[in-house]
Design goal:
Strand order of the largest sheet: 3-2-1-4-5-7-6
Strand content: 5-15%
Number of helices: 20
Order of helices and strands: HHEHEHEEHEHEEHHHHHHHHHHHHHH
Helix content: 40-55%
Distance between the termini: 67 Å
Shape: globular
């Protein structure tokens, strides 16, 4: 045992270690050491991402050792997700409520825990200064921004600890970029070797002059910047931890870099003994590239759309009907109907009868100036319950184009309202509906609708465009 690492001396009782957890044993030892040896009591202990309570129990054990009565404020949505089944046996279906299960698991530690059900992207905090903030959730840019905005104002410079349990997880590669990009704001205090956990303290107030950004995104870190940050981090990491950072660089290159360079990093990872199955989540970049591709097509850049689709399809083991559909549309816009039909045929072979074929048919009809037929087919696709967000967005774009060519204006709002019950969870639909409400001079309804769209997708382009148009009106009123 390493005598230089104090938390490795912590002996956890059975009631703390029996709980299933995504945290390693050393990570739980560290949390217990933190509350037993470093907690002063001047601020709250907040845990984001309770799951079954393994981290909660570890934090509470430290309070029990100290004989303290403070309570950990712990938050989770408590909605079962498919990946959890591989970590803990359960008969819960996806979306099932597991709060009661968590409360049973941590029953020995309930005197030290206040458990809250919350969506962290929509939560708030009114508990004053935070001494220890444990972040054990995977969520990417949106969730990272939400956590910083909600809890960041309550971190005390030079005193609060922010424990990032997934700092070295390739899935959460935004964290090294966010924290390492501002050395004047964040200082690393502890890090576990061969583990994902790293802890920081804020050196100054997070907001205000020279503070952090308020809306981090993929675009905040161009490839050259991201590569510098990640390679500098790799140089400071142990040999066991470097492959995790290299996976993050691989992900960034898949999104923004040369595909050949990305494949070279992939070969390095495989040569280093990383199983191909472990690269699956790192390579799951299709959602990002699809948004870019459809936006490129909307902006009249079919080559950009084709490049995004081809990049998705070039990742080993990934050939989806979504990427093939984008490829088909890009080829069609570039005048290569044969290649377009070949791509859409492959998409249909992967999912026979899917809505992609309807959208493609509508696009073909528009190229042939058969606008009324295109409108009918686009509406059929939009009423298809299986249509995903990309299909909804593109179906609406095709529908609007058909309306414009047919000089139809009066029926637009009524048509979208007929879709409202089916598409309330689609930010693209809500953005289009808000625009039509605004054009119909129903400003209050338009504002409420576009706010719902932005709550679902803060970066949605059309929703932001509508909001910018409406916002001055609201200010004037």
């Amino acid at each position: 045992m390493d005598s230089q690492v104090p938390w490795k001396q912590v002996v956890l009782p059975a009631e703390a270690t029996r709980i299933k957890s995504t945290l390693s044993l050393e990570a739980r030892q560290y949390l217990t050491w933190l509350t037993s040896a470093r907690y002063e009591g001047w601020g709250a202990i907040v845990e984001l991402g309770t799951w079954l309570g393994g981290g909660t129990a570890a934090l509470a054990e430290g309070l029990r050792i100290r004989g303290r009565a403070e309570k950990i404020q712990t938050y989770d949505r408590f909605e079962w997700e498919p990946y959890m089944a591989a970590l803990a046996a359960s008969d819960l279906a996806p979306g099932g409520d597991f709060l009661a299960c968590t409360l049973r698991e941590i029953s020995d530690y309930l005197p030290w825990a206040d458990v809250h059900r919350a969506d962290l992207c929509e939560s708030d905090w009114a508990g004053g200064a935070i001494e220890i903030l444990v972040v054990d959730v995977l969520g990417g840019w949106e969730l990272a921004n939400a956590v910083l905005k909600t809890f960041g104002p309550f971190l005390i410079p030079g005193r609060s600890r922010v424990v990032l349990a997934s700092f070295r997880s390739p899935h959460d590669y935004c964290l090294p970029l966010i924290f390492d990009s501002r050395p004047g704001v964040w200082q690393q205090t502890e890090a576990l070797d061969a583990d994902q956990l790293v802890t920081f303290i804020p050196l100054k107030s997070l907001f205000g002059p020279a503070g952090i950004d308020t809306d981090y995104s993929e675009a905040s870190f161009p490839l050259a910047t991201a590569e510098t940050l990640l390679r500098n981090r790799m140089a400071r990491e142990s040999e066991a931890d470097r492959p995790k950072l290299l996976q993050m660089l691989y992900r960034k290159r898949l999104i923004d870099g040369s595909l050949d360079d990305a494949m070279e990093i992939r070969r390095q990872l495989l040569d280093a003994g990383i199983p191909e199955s472990d690269l699956s989540s790192t390579e799951d970049v299709e959602s990002i590239l699809m948004v870019r591709g459809w936006e490129a097509l909307t902006d009249g850049n079919p080559q950009g759309a084709l490049d995004c689709a081809a990049r998705c399809l070039s990742i080993p083991g990934r050939r989806s009907e979504q990427a093939l559909t984008l490829l088909a549309f890009a080829h069609l816009r570039m005048g290569d109907r044969s290649a377009a039909e070949q791509a859409i045929a492959e998409a249909e072979s992967l999912r026979p009868g899917a809505h992609q074929a309807q959208l493609f048919r509508a696009e073909v009809l528009l190229t042939e100036q058969r606008n009324a037929e295109a409108k009918t087919v686009a509406l059929e696709a939009l009423f298809n319950p299986a249509a995903g967000e990309a299909a909804i967005e593109w179906g609406l774009n095709l529908l609007v184009l058909a309306w414009d060519r047919l000089h139809e204006h009066d029926a637009r709002l009524a048509t979208l309202q007929s879709l409202a019950e089916l598409r309330q969870g689609s930010p693209s639909f809500l953005a289009h509906l808000a625009r039509e409400l605004d054009l119909s001079n129903r400003e209050a309804e338009a504002r409420a609708t576009v706010k719902r769209a932005l709550a679902l997708a803060p970066g949605h382009r059309l929703a932001n465009t509508v909001w910018k148009h409406l916002e001055p009106m609201g200010m004037r009123s």
